[in-house]
Every structure is written in structure tokens, then in C-alpha cells.
Amino acid sequence: MAKRLTPADMDKFFNPQSIALVGVSRSGWRFGGLSFMRKLIDAGYAGRLYPINAKADDILGVKAWPDVASLPEVPDLVMVTVAAANVPAMIEACARKGARHIHLLTAGFDELGTAAGQEMAARLVSTCERHNVWLIGPNCMGPYRPAARLAAWGAIPGVAGPLGIISQSGGMTQRLTEYAASLGLGVEKAVSVGNGSVLGALDFLEAFGDDPLIKVIGMYLEGIDDGSRLLELARGIGRSKPIVVIKGGQSDAGSRTVASHTGAMAGRAAIWEAVFRQANMIPVQTLDGWLDALMAFAFVDPPRANGVFIIGGGGGTSVLYGDTFVREGLRVPPLGAPTMARLREIVPEAGSIAGNPLDMWQVFTDTACLGHLIDMAEEEAAVDLMVVDRLIARNAFHMPETPDLTAETIDMLDTRSGRKPIVFVVDSEGGDSRLAADGAAIRAAFGRAGYAVFPSIGRAARALSRLYRYYDRREKRV
Amino acid sequence: MAKRLTPADMDKFFNPQSIALVGVSRSGWRFGGLSFMRKLIDAGYAGRLYPINAKADDILGVKAWPDVASLPEVPDLVMVTVAAANVPAMIEACARKGARHIHLLTAGFDELGTAAGQEMAARLVSTCERHNVWLIGPNCMGPYRPAARLAAWGAIPGVAGPLGIISQSGGMTQRLTEYAASLGLGVEKAVSVGNGSVLGALDFLEAFGDDPLIKVIGMYLEGIDDGSRLLELARGIGRSKPIVVIKGGQSDAGSRTVASHTGAMAGRAAIWEAVFRQANMIPVQTLDGWLDALMAFAFVDPPRANGVFIIGGGGGTSVLYGDTFVREGLRVPPLGAPTMARLREIVPEAGSIAGNPLDMWQVFTDTACLGHLIDMAEEEAAVDLMVVDRLIARNAFHMPETPDLTAETIDMLDTRSGRKPIVFVVDSEGGDSRLAADGAAIRAAFGRAGYAVFPSIGRAARALSRLYRYYDRREKRV
Question: Which residues are CB-contacts of B475 (< 8 A; sequence separation ≥ 6)?
Fold first, then answer.
């Protein structure tokens, strides 16, 4: 049943001036109201917090209230974490107070797969309908918005940015927001919808479609009641905002787990694929693939076409890099004669390879040389986007000691006049902690500067392929 | 032209008691003899080093010699790095001295794609044939063997172990050895063969097949003159040793680069695929995939069948984990009733999911619980191998502070009586340096303890799928 969330509703959920927490123990570590409240304080949430606990005077230094009725105002948002059996009464108490926007963390409803669980869910829905309550949940982490310091989970306080994330898994949303934030890729709004008994993923998809601050949408779906509504919404929204979607439960093993996880029916893989294709949604299959695609769409302008210029790599790696991009459906075209003539002037004959991919060690150690190559590629008609392999200096190589050129490279990029998209690959795989830390720091620096960055050529190629295909199809449809 | 390397030849190349370096500048940084010599000293090479330089008394503290003729003994191995034009005369000088095992670093032969380059290559080959010289190269990094501290490139001093690596790319070999060493995965012998003008990849494949210290072979190939010899050798060797192969230059872009890189003809992708299938070789496409497959074959015993038990993950991640393994052709079977009954006793009803995959937070914080689950899986007929997601504690999660349990977990594993293979996933993706460093350290600890470890579920699934299929096909053929 479609619910139309108004901007005012969205404001209550994602920009609450006050939050009541129902079901907050006084102390200790326990997943629930207290851990949510602690995270909100850590995040620097600046609105009014009302922990409800009849036995406490204050909790974490904040005045506690005996019940919702006694609160000095109607809270914008209520986070409910009491035991499942007590939920309906609590919703009624909220409604009596006038609070109509609730996040219900509590599990133990239809996802149990039992008759009792189904009955609990039905009662929950009828209670909300009777009192006109908008409820996110049950069995979920709820709303998240770094700009409002509403960050009781995921990256804390998080990074504000262009993403809108809708997820039927709290864990996936936490991982995604944390992962994105570490790379400077920000989230405008995220919502973990859980069982979606009242407000579901599609209600938020519709609202995110209308949200001017959200440029790219990421969805983790396990099941959807109303496939035709998904198709209709995604078709419309997808014309202006890419929707990157993971569909969990495509296998028997996955769908067995879905049934116990959110109670949703997983549906057949082929049907989902057809839906995604018809709506020009971007299906991905793993957390990594989700993040990579979101990063590409958030940071990379639509390329004119699919000619990639690959800069960096050694001999063998260049060969594989070329293969990798072609396998993903992009082109690694030969460069025109004038560009090749210019390249041959600067590329040493032995030990390097002038061409595309370009194998030339100097790009790792000489920012001006890299800038020169980028300028050259701007003028080369065959090139639509550039991929730069930022190899980290390693003991394994015969290379002179080189200081970290990341800041210098970003300065160079920020002042270039060219407009062709450029992305970076910084590979620091393996078990070497120093290399891993350096690689992460360099990736973070590129991401924070607004440049898409990937940890391997394979992942860059896949994300850029998705980017290109989305815009190519969109253009042909419009 | 097939060359049969004897054990004595292999000893000269990979266990040299003395090495002459021809073309060593006195000081400064330059890729070549001096950088090779410096790396050998760094690696702790304990044999006798003879730098050849007519103008120097000593180089890097080692007595220098005016020419090969004046050396006090016949060096086992000569590393030649002089300019291409001087190479034939230098080979003749070596031969006159009686030195017959040469590594030629110098580039500028047939890989140039010019008539002059072809002529240089032909002259090189005829010189070697006339003097009965075994030459690795030109245009390559040559032999590498950590056990002999023969490590002038790649991981230095490297880690000795079961791998034999043969590569037409020096860069790929350096990356692979460094990457593997960081995870405790060791190399017995590696060789970068370059243009392979005299000794080629297949000559070393044959020798590695006979080498009792090599258990798993990795190859990076760009082109092979003699496809039927590859097929014949691989068929024989592949019955006892898995051969994991990357074929570079499968795309136009890649093969354009191959021509300039080693001068080899790249051939058609479909033909290569047929060859690999017929020989039960394991084709991979990226450096990551190469490492992952080599790790699986080196560290994981053949599973009885393809039933995977996935331990860890949250709700949504478990769903995706199941999908991922099934997509890679493995099974994530339901567990039998007795196992499920035991699981339900220990898995909380709400917030976790008893089953396969198993979603249970306790496995991240309680080693005894993990051990109990592993024992349970040992007795479960549906399970052939286990995959454990070792989630690193993150600020994003609502979890109690947990000390790093890696050492405790390894102790637990080392004392378990079960025999089913178990592998680990430790994901520390993104731009957080601390998380990245922690993840790398944990992966290194598992790898050094002999447990296969992967940085994502997707990569684990792919590597294990390759492992399973190889043994399954091998069994059916024998």
C-alpha cells in the first residue's frame, strides 16, 4: 500500500528537532535504546533528547522522563526499542501525545516466520493505521542523516553528501555509510527500513526521488510487494537520478535467509533482472560493487563516450589493464598520430610503452609529467575518460625514493582546465599494514577532493562500465 | 624450440653460489646492475658477488673486477645489464670464461617491433646457441628464490614456500611475490622470462613440473610459440600440480601492448580458453584473482564436495554471502535437522538467524563459540568447507569493545581435531587507515599460520570455486 511521505514527514524523520527514546536502560552495554542514545550523543546530535525511563532521573547526563505523556513537547521522532509485546501500547501512547513519526528497532515480528510473529505484525500495522502513525520498521536501524548529526549507527558523525540510501538491511547500510564516509563520499539521507510493515523501501524511493539534495540513490532490496510500483517509480526517478541496487536473496541459500531476515519474498532472479533493465536501474551484487558504483555516479561526470585512456602500470600490468576494461565493455582505443608523436617524444624507448595503455614510470614520480599527459589526453579525440594508476612506492620495485605526491597531484588536478573525467586507482592489497594504511590514506585524500578512487583496476573498470551504460541508455531513452 | 633444463641448470639459476654482475655503475640511482646488486645485498644473499666495472676498485663495499675473464672462479650465474649493442660480446666473454647461465636484463630487442630489434634478437639467439649458453631474457627481471636469498626484486628477502611463478612480465612477478609474501604465502622459485628468446616460459614450466619443492604453479603468459607443447606439459603437470594462469593480451588493447611489451603474439581468446580447459589449467584475469587462487591452492586441502558453511555476517550480509557463493557455482546447503536443533539452542531468536549462512554476532566476539560452531560443522554431512567472516570491530556498529581475537582464534584452530578446510574473510576496505592497517595485520596473521584469507566474500567465493572445480575435474579425469 503506497504511502506518500510529504516533505514535512521527511523533516520529522531526517531533521528532527527532538527525539524521544523509549526503552532506554540506565547503564551497561546492550544493543537498544541506550546504545542508540550514546551514538547520537557521540555524533553531536544537537536537538533535544528525551530518554524515557520511569526509574531514572537522568541517563548519560540527560534528564529522563517517566513516560511519553509527561514530555514537555511533542517529539518530532520517537525511537522505540521496547520488547515486541509492549510495542502496540507504546505506539498508542505516542499517538495520544501527538507523536506520529516512529522508528521501531525491535525485532520479533513477521521475520520470525511463525504464526505468532505474523499476528504481532498485523497488530502493529493496524495500530499504526488507526492512529495515523508513520512507522519505520520493525527490526531495523531507522533513519540516518549526517547533516543533522542524526547518526545513531553507521559512520559517526558521518559525511554529508549526495547519496540517498534505502536498505532492507541495517548491517549493509551501516557498512555502506562507514565505507563511503572513509572515502569522503557523503550521504544525504539513509534509511534502514527492516520489515517495512508500514513504510517500505518504495515509499522512501518516492520521497528520495523528490529530494533535491539527493543525486544518486542506492538500494539494498530483499523483496518488494509491489513490483509494478517499483518499476514505475524507478523509471521516472532513474531519468534524473541513477539508482544502484543490490538484490539480496537471488539464490536458494540467500532467499532462505531472506525469509528469516526481513520476512520478504525474494522472488526470481530473472524477473528482477528484467525489472532493473526496464527501469535502467544499475544492479550490483556485492557491497564493494555497490560502493564503487555509487562513487562513480557521485563523483564522475557523464563521459561523452566509452574511450578510456589508461595511464600508469608496467608492461604486463598495462596489458592486463587493457584487457580488463575491454572485458567490461569499454574501449581502450589507439591514440591518434599527433598524440602518439607527442608521446614518443617523452616516453623512453626501452622499458616503457608509448600508447594506450601507457606504460611509463615517470607518472608515478613526476606530477608535472602526469599533468602533461592529462592535458594531452584532453586534446585527443579518442579519449573520453582517463584512469590513472597511482602505484604506491614499494620495496619490491627498483624505484627511487619518492615522497607521497597525492597532495601535489590533487593541486594539479584542481587547477587543470580540462573537463574529461579522471579517476584513480590506488592498490594496496595484502597483508602489509604500512602499505595498507598508506593506500587507505591516499584513497581518502582523492575521495575527499571529489575524485573517484578505486582499490583495483578491475573494480574501476566495472564501476565505470556501469556509469557509461547508464548514461548511454538514458540518453537513448529520453 | 624446447630446451630441457637439468636439475644442475636449475641449481645454477636458482641457487647460485656466485653471481657476476656485468654493467654495474659505481654510484647513483639507476635501474640496472647497481640496483640489482643493492637489492641482493639487502636480501642477504650469502654467495659471492662479483661486480664487473673496469673503473672501480669496489662497489657497495664489494671488490670490483675489470672484466669477466679476470674473475677468480667461473660464476654460477651472470646478470648482464649492459646496453643492447654490447650484449653479444659480453655473452661471448662469459662463455670463454665457462659461465653458461646468464640473466639478461637489457631491453631493446624484438619487443621494439623494428627490423633492427629483430636482428639484435636473432644475433642474441645465435650467439647463445653457438656457445651453449642458457639465457633468461632479454628484457626481464630473471630468477628469484627466497630460500637462496636470491631476491633482487619482488618481496625482499621474500618468503619461501610452495609456489612456482613463471612470468612474461617482471612487474606482475614483482607485484605477485610482494603481495604473496605480505600474507605469508611463500615462493619456492619465480622467474621473469621477458622475451624468452632462448629459455621460454614452457622450459621453466617443464622444470617446475619436476621440482619437488613446487606444489602450485602460477603463470603470467602473453604469448606462446608452441601451443601443443603447452597443452602437453600442462596436462601432465596439472595432474599433480594446479597451474593458475593469467593470459594477458586477450583484448585488442591488451594485445597491442603485448606486441610492444615482450614481442609475443597474443593469440585469440577462444583458443586460449580451449587450451586451458583441456589441460585443466585454472585461468584467472587479474592480479587479485591470481593471488587468491594461488593462496587457495597453497593453503586449502581439496574439499570432498562443494557444500559451504558460511559463518558470520549480519542479516543482509548473510543473504548476499549465500548469493555470492551460489553464483560462483558452490552450494550453501541447508543444515541437517540435528545440527539445526543444536544451533537453535545457542543462536538468539531475534536479531540472529540460525542456518546456513549463519548470522550470529557472537562469532565475532567469542572464540569458544566459533570453535563450537566449527566442531558442529565437522559433524554435519552437508558441509564440506567453512568460510568465516572475521568482521573487524568498527565504530559504526553497536558492539561491545572487543580485543583482537586473531591470535586466540589461530590457537583454537591449530588444536582442533577436524579436517574440513576452513578459510577466512577479513574485509577492511575503504579509506580508513587504522581499519586498513588492522585488516592487513589480521590477514597476515592468518596467512602466516597457513590459513587462506581473503579481503572480501566475493574473492573468497571465486577462489574456492576454482579450487573445487580443479579437483573435481582432476578426479574425473584420472
Answer: none
